[in-house]
Amino acid sequence: MKINKTGLLSGLVVAGSLFASISSASADTIKVGIANFGEHPQLNAAIAGFKDAMAENGFVEGTDVTYSESHTNFDASLVPQMITKLQAENPKLIYTVTTPVSQIAKQILAGSDIPIVFSAVTDPVAAKLVPSWDAGDTNMTGASDLQDIAAVLEFTRKLLPDAKRLAIPYNPGEANDVALLEKVKELAPAAGFSVVSVGIDNVNDILQRITSVAGKADVIYTPASNLIQPAIAAVSAAARQIGVPIVNSDSSAVANGTVPASFSVDYGQVGLNAGKIAAEILKGKSPADIPPSAPTYETHAPMISKSAAAAFGIEIPASFDDCGCIVE
To answer: What is the pLDDT of residues 179-193, one digit of tens each?
Structure first.
């Protein structure tokens, strides 16, 4: 085959110019790594909110910043590999979503110059990510998803006025879950509840552990746990077997009729809070000078599923008639 050398050289020149253009464009953008635990509506909302806040603060995706996203499908054993891979890409910052991912990232990136911004972490102090609620760590700070537990209990009491015993399924191996359980135990008596702790450290034990509260609990509150929420359908099925209704920490399971009710944090707002913090760091502020943020009461919202409530034998009180929070 005859090769046209002139055409070939012209092509190389064009290709070279294109490569130079791409390299120049890449040089003008910064890279941010996103380390997620797995695909879930709450966590996805936290990532979307993060990007929105970054854009609002001058870091527009594709123009000012490029994102390298990864998740482990909730497999904690793969998190170190994910963090190491993101670190090798030399990002200006890594955004970590959930407590397990954030804890492992802090260990692996210790001593590096890559700042970390976390979100979807219930208690960053208990998880030893930051020294206090008043300051960030040397290279880490972020946005908590800590719920207003007193408000959750108030909502539960209003929905189920006769309930007295509140069961809390939790993972004993996750700092978030343990911290939340202790907070519930502290505040429940004032709301007229006693607390039944239900430790679950394996999804295969959900049916047995949830059904074990038959006759011991009047309502189950399912927290924003990395073990419980991905398996909320199984938790709900087990709870329905024993006729104990659920108040969930995530509204998506109410919207699709899996559980009767929720009083939940807006994870899009949690992500927005994290994105604002990341933008501050990228503009030169030290993570140590930025305290972790927490949701306000206004970032919580109730939701009740009429069909799921009926399936669990709940009669929705008239006090909710005008709440605008009831879905079919």
So the answer is: 889 999 999 999 999
